[in-house]
Amino acid sequence: MAQVHIQAPSSSSVAGEESRRLPNPVRVAARESMAGGRLLDSHSLDGISQVYGASKSQEGRRATISSALELEGTVSYDGDLTHFVANNLQMKIKMSSRGSLDDTEPTSSSMSSQHSVRGKTADIPPVDPQVLRDLERLTTDVAQRVDQMLRALNSAIQNMTALSVGYIQTYRDAVDSLGESVDMSIKGMYTLMARCEELDRSMQPVHLLAKQIREIKRTLEIFEAVCK
């Protein structure tokens, strides 16, 4: 049975990893296993071995596991011993520990939230029935006062509306009477003008008589002058 020794990463191991070329199925399976940010376990190694065994059935399980390990670091052989140098071991350990912390954090946060909710519930004092009755009484009183205010406002608005209607009717009557008075005055003026025209026509003989009188007077004055 082969033994695996894990050593700290070095620059030579990183260069060795970049220089290696692995079969396509193994590289694809390894990339899928690294996508979750976790180290390869026995199940992932078995999966890679199955993929690799389907494409290369003539090779043994040891070659498959060695090829899978080569994706995570540098593999060397010394007889029956297999030496494995992991790449970026510290980062993988941090990622594994971070995943476990993330799994435990929701539980602790949920417990703290439950405790906070219980504390808030315990801080709420019980409701006093007398306070509720007083609140109901005050609410009823306020509702009655608001109802009375609305009724008084409605009555005042109705009175103002009646006064406005009375003012409008009075103004209309005054305008109507003023129009009638002006109409009668105009009619009287036209009547007076017609009477004056009739009087002027009837005074025509008087004008002739006055002319004759002036002529007679002038003749008398001439006779008086001759007699002197």
UniProtKB/TrEMBL annotation:
Region (Disordered): 1-24, 96-126
Bias (Polar residues): 106-116
GO aspect biological process, one term: lysosome localization
InterPro entries hit by this protein: BORCS6 (IPR019314), BORCS6_C (IPR046465)
Top-level taxon in the UniProt lineage: Eukaryota
Pfam families, A to Z: BORCS6
Residue ranges annotated for the BLOC-1-related complex subunit 6 C-terminal helix domain, each copy included: 125-224
GO cellular component: BORC complex
Name of the protein in its database record: BLOC-1-related complex subunit 6 C-terminal helix domain-containing protein
Lineage start: Eukaryota, Metazoa, Chordata, Craniata, Vertebrata
